[in-house]
Amino acid sequence: GIQVEQSPPDLILQEGANSTLRCNFSDSVNNLQWFHQNPWGQLINLFYIPSGTKQNGRLSATTVATERYSLLYISSSQTTDSGVYFCAVYSGGGADGLTFGKGTHLIIQP
Amino acid sequence: DADVTQTPRNRITKTGKRIMLECSQTKGHDRMYWYRQDPGLGLRLIYYSFDVKDINKGEISDGYSVSRQAQAKFSLSLESAIPNQTALYFCATSDSKTGIRELFFGEGSRLTVL
Fold first, then answer.
1. What pLDDT, on the 0 to 100 scale, is given for residue A30?
2. Chain A CB within 8 Å of residue B50 CB
3. Residues of chain B falling short of pLDDT 70
4. For the CA atoms of B85, B91, B97, B102, what is the dihedral angle to 10 degrees?
């Protein structure tokens, strides 16, 4: 099946800093989503982005499907941005549903 | 109110007990999924269903069963729980009519098997 690798695994930043999280995948994808898992365990949809660029406030994402990677940008980080960020993809073969990476654990310090 | 509701949110049980986790949704989506998350890992697919009469195994279905009682309801059962089934379980939905397979998750059910 498709492989999803996220980097870095851990990231500690000061409030106000910018960050870039990366997701590499091993095959072409029909769906790519970014999620934020908050400290209470809830999964929050950030972006549905199988290709192209999207922005939502301080967050933006870019997927370059031909090169099999996606980037999540967080600008002017706030402590509430802390948590785990997951990239998940669907390649169109095998079982339905998303294949998840192991996530990037982000800690924003005040 | 959440569009995808899971019950119970937290459960502690003993080895050998039967456990059912329930999921209901008000989004009108036809596809439903159960995922499991272990500490430090991403989510892994247990079962999924395209409609009431359709059930499919995912990556890690051993030890689990599911029932799709209605389009809006999808339950996950552990017939005889064991400690390594301790995990955070998520239900998710998607709408095949959109053609884009975007998934929406419930708030999770934390299960501890002693």
1. 86
2. yes
3. 1
4. -90
